[in-house]
Amino acid sequence: MAQPHWLGIQLAPGISRGNFSTYLFAVFISSGYAGALSVLQPGLLHVMGIAADTQAMLTGFLSALQELVFILLLGAAGALSDRLGRRPVYVFGLALTGIGFALYAHAGSITQLVAFRLLVAVGSAAMIGMMVTVVADYATGESRGRANGVQALMATLGAFVPPILASLPKVFSGRGFDELAAQQWTFAIGGALGLVAAVIALVGLATKMQQTASVARESFKATLVGGLRAARDPQTALSYGAAFISRGDLAVTGAFISLWLVQYGTRELGLSASEALFQLAVPRVLATVAGALLGSMIMGFIADRASRVTAVALASGLAAAVYGAVFLVSDPTADWVIGLLFVMGIAEISAFVSSQALVGQQAPEAYRGATIGFFGVAGACGILIGTSGGGVLFAKISPSAPFVLFGALNFAVFLWSMWLRKQLNQKNGEPAQVSAPEISTSQV
Q1: Which of 79-88, 92-101, 193-202 has the weakest average pLDDT?
Q2: CA distance 359 to 340
Q3: How much is the pLDDT for 46?
Q4: Mean pLDDT of 430-437
Q5: Model pLDDT, residue 325
């Protein structure tokens, strides 16, 4: 019996259209949470009466804390899902993230704020880990590129959730709520999204996958080690390197484009911070998002037509050129920069999609969750370097420096992928343009 198709994707055995639709809704909410705290937290810290200089240090500390939790727990969450199934881990992650989010605005001290951020971080480690892993389970090998493209499209749409939530405090204040109550209601609505998504995921995601449950009978430690050892496969190792730069790309763009434009607008053009944000940053951020929407579908198609190592090479090569070109930008408000940012959106999401398609192809079936969990760890390291190291470069050298750094890192991954592509072609005796299943040495 032929397997069902949905949105042009051939679904894996045992997966229904309803399962995949539920997963896409979970992706939408999961990606919305990814940027929500960075947008909402500044207003909350102000309402809490925390001094401005302390706000900056606390924001950096909380962001670093969350990435460290990701580094520590993503692999473990993946290994746990190999034994228990994806659904319970995803439901747990969505629910705990929602609970932590709802509690966040009720913090009465910095200590409580840190405790609630830890809840969000632990939940997010499970949630984000499953967001990346489930797509590899739900699509056949021939369709994983398109599946990752559709997933990236939903994740990009989820990026519109934080701005919508950010508008709610003003709405509540206009209806007579004091500032703290307005923040608490906003965070409560944000938390409710996770709880609703958890219930929908519990009902709509597939039960424990047979191909995972029947194999993963080893101890939790053995499962975790098995996922770590998967990096001995050259293509899996490349996917980890691509995860590092693709997540770093997204972090650098998200953290420093708006900051650069607001600083330039206030310093050079005499605008207020809010004017600079609205007039300069918003149109250019939207250009990047538009590029990402287009790039997610293009790279999903390419990843199913060329080998996935080739897809990584194309994505990292484009990203190297685009991020390196930021060195030429002296006026970030110039018209041509909007075009550059549009292509940057294509490049960063292409690196994201191609790396996920490659690790989904290579991850051993028994240790798929753990392997993709360590893939997430590599991505978390990229985010940590991009935001912390990039911040130093931005302040001490120039606003373009973080982009140039990741341009160089993308170029290194481009050279790595081209070298591996050549090795695989020589090993398999195939011409350069071969399909992903033909080039894979450990297709699942």
Answers
A1: 79-88
A2: 29
A3: 80
A4: 42
A5: 96
Q: What is d(CA 211, CA 71) in angstroms, rounded to the nearest whole number?
A: 27
Structure tokens belonging to residue 29: 């909410």
pLDDT on residue 431:
47
Considering the segment(s) 221-439 as one domain, its CATH architecture is: Up-down Bundle (1.20)
Three-state SS string over the chain comes to CCCCEECCEEECCCCCHHHHHHHHHHHHHHHHHHHHHHHHHHHHHHHCCCCHHHHHHHHHHHHHHHHHHHHHHHHHHHHHHHHHCHHHHHHHHHHHHHHHHHHHCCCCCHHHHHHHHHHHHHHHHHHHHHHHHHHHHHECHHHHHHHHHHHHHHHHHHCCHHHHHHCHHHHHHHCCCCHHHHHHHHHHHHHHHHHHHHHHHHHHCCCCCHHHHCCCCCCHHHHHHHHHHHHHCHHHHHHHHHHHHHHHHHHHHHHHHHHHHHHHHHHHCCCCHHHHHHHHHHHHHHHHHHHHHHHHHHHHHHHHHCCHHHHHHHHHHHHHHHHHHHHHCCCCCCHHHHHHHHHHHHHHHHHHHHHHHHHHHHCCHHHHHHHHHHHHHHHHHHHHHHHHHHHHHHHHCCCCHHHHHHHHHHHHHHHHHHHHHHHHHHHHCCCCCCCHHHHCCCCC
Question: How much is the mean pLDDT over the chain?
Answer: 85
Q: What is the pTM of this model?
A: 0.79
**Which residues of the chain form CATH 1.20.1250.20?**
1-217, 221-439
By CB atoms closer than 10 A (0-12, 13-18, 19+), residue 115 is middle
The mean pLDDT of 54-80, rounded to a whole number, is 84
Question: What token pair was written down for 20?
Answer: 């995949």
Q: What is the pLDDT of residues 162-218, one digit of tens each?
A: 888 888 888 888 888 888 999 899 999 999 999 999 999 999 999 865 444 444 455
Single-letter amino acid, residue 433: Q
Mind listing the pLDDT tens digit for each residue in 254-285? 778 877 887 888 888 887 766 776 788 778 88
377 near 75, Cβ under 8 Å? yes
Higher pLDDT, 43 or 398: 398
Pick from 324, 322, 254: which is nearest to 289 by CA?
254
The CATH homologous superfamily for domain 1-217 is MFS general substrate transporter like domains (1.20.1250.20)
Rounded Cα distance between 19 and 370, Å, is 22
